[in-house]
């Protein structure tokens, strides 16, 4: 993937609520993505429970995989992690 193909996504995650508040897509406009990121960071600068993440990728589907913790309910993410640990432990027995 070349830099021309990188799409920019801004993820706004509220740890208190336990879910993504907003996902913004900027296409290949890096300048607009960075400007929006800075605005949102300023808005939530005193809110330690908020994650503001600017990610570059080929698609939102890829980000759903690479940053699954933002798209999965906390209990489902924990269950998935435990299942992988148990499967790995069973494979070594």
From TrEMBL:
Superkingdom, natural source: Bacteria
Protein name, per record: Uncharacterized protein
Native source organism of the sequence: Tessaracoccus palaemonis
Classification lineage: Bacteria, Bacillati, Actinomycetota, Actinomycetes, Propionibacteriales
């Amino acid at each position: 993937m070349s830099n021309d193909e990188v799409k920019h996504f801004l993820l706004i995650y509220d740890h208190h609520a336990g879910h993504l508040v907003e996902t913004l897509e900027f296409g290949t406009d890096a300048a607009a993505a960075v400007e929006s990121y800075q605005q949102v960071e300023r808005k939530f600068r005193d809110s330690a429970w908020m994650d503001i993440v600017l990610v570059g990728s080929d698609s939102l589907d890829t980000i759903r995989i690479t940053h699954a913790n933002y798209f999965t309910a906390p209990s489902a993410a924990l269950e998935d992690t435990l299942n992988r640990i148990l499967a790995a432990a069973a494979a070594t027995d």
